[in-house]
Amino acid sequence: MAQVVLQSPRGSALRGTSKLQLLARTLPITGAISMLLALIFEPGATTALQAAVAPNLLARVLMVAMGLTAMLYAELKLVSLLSAVAFNVLSTLHQIPIVLAGVVFQHNTVSQSSVAGFTCCIFGALVYALARYNDTH
User: Fold this and answer.
1) Which residue spans traverse the membrane (predicted)?
2) Among 98, 99, 86, which Cα is nearest to 125's?
3) Angle at Cα 58 formed by Cα 27 and Cα 44, nearest 5°?
4) Fewer CB within 10 Å: N-end or C-end of the chain?
């Protein structure tokens, strides 16, 4: 869906919509629907909602929300420059800092087969990126 919106034909009103405008229109709706579904399907949601008005927690929620907005903006920018398929293939590269953070900060262990599989996925993503680059140039 994001690829259709961000790569629509020239002159289209959708193509003229900036990524921040798109986020400003979709994120509040997503948040409201998520809150409604949490209240309906999660038994302790009302208690958590009452605890959420604490100023310390609200500041942390705001920081996380700003970080997620920046991340979504970057993802939409990548989808507009590449394609949804290329973005998903290259998203394996996003897992490198996550794995490293788990190993360094939480002392997680990574087996040899996991390292081999991860290396294979990254190699495949790089080969795909190179093939796509060669197709466009």
Assistant:
1) 22-41, 53-74, 81-105, 111-131
2) 86
3) 80
4) C
